[in-house]
Structures are given as C-alpha cells and as structure tokens.
Amino acid sequence: MRGLSELEGCVLGYLWKYGASTAYAVRKELLDSPSSHWSGSAGAIYPLLERLERRGVVASSKGARGDRAHWTYELTDAGHDAFMAWLAPPLAYDIISIAPDPLRTRMYFLGALSGPRRATFLAQAREKLTAYIKELEAVHVDDDFDRLANKGAIRATKARIAWLDDVQRSLAGAPARPRRKKAR
Q: Is residue 133 one of the residues assigned to a domain?
C-alpha cells in the first residue's frame, strides 16, 4: 500500500481520535483548523473518504438523522495500521524541512517595492501575525496534544514576527534595489 498524503493521514487521525464520524464532521474540523494548509472543502473531503474506503482503510455505514441520510466513516484495522505508519518514525525529509511559506516567498521579491510600500508590507504582516496569535491563544482545547500543537503554532508565529523584526532592522536605511529595465 502506498503511503498516505498529509491530508489522508490527518483524516485517518481524526477518525482515530474521535471515532466514527460523518464526512461533514471531518470537514468542519478541517475548516475550523487555524491552518490554511488543510482543505476542508466538500470537493476534497468526500472524494478523499471514498478513495480511502476503496483502499480499505475506512469503512462506511449508512445512517439517518431525522429524515436526512448520512454516511459514517470509521477506521478499519488496515486504516489503523496505515495511520500508525504515517504517524510514527522514521520521519521523512518533507516532514522536518521548511514548509511552504508564502510570506517568506514574498520576502525574496520585496526589493521590487518602494521603501514606503515595503514598510507597509512589513507592518501589515506583523499586525496580521499578532492578530493570528490572539486567535490561537483564544482557542480552548481540552486535549493535551491539541494544546501542545496549538502552543507550537503560537511559538512558530512568534518566531515569524521576530524574523520580520530582523528584516525591518536590516532594511532600515538600506537603499532600494535598482529596478530592472524592461526589455524592448
């Protein structure tokens, strides 16, 4: 069996942690996540659960709530094994390497902005990251591992603010890079 994608592993982990669940419950968890990395769209989750069922790692059963039918998904033994293989060491390079970061990517090209626009960019990024920390701090979590993951998100965001402060100090008084001349 091929390895799990991050989204597949996350969905299996959700089913491990919370037990049998509807696709809607899985979607809601991903949509409520503080990370924009997870796709909780119906177009991602429903087909994903169907693929996982075809692979034999989840099983579905039809149920009803009132007059509405729904499908409930739960881990199979093979799903539990696949989840444990995804979760446990050895950790692949892509798990520990630098994750995609659109803010960091923009930093490579910040020289294209004028000094005032650069300052606005940095100030807005710092402001939004600070607001994001407040959102994360307001999240109430009962589970110790959820709390630890949230704490990691807060620390990573604080590190990003410290990095922006370093950038701002480095750029203070730095001349703007010359603009590229357009080809004729």
A: yes
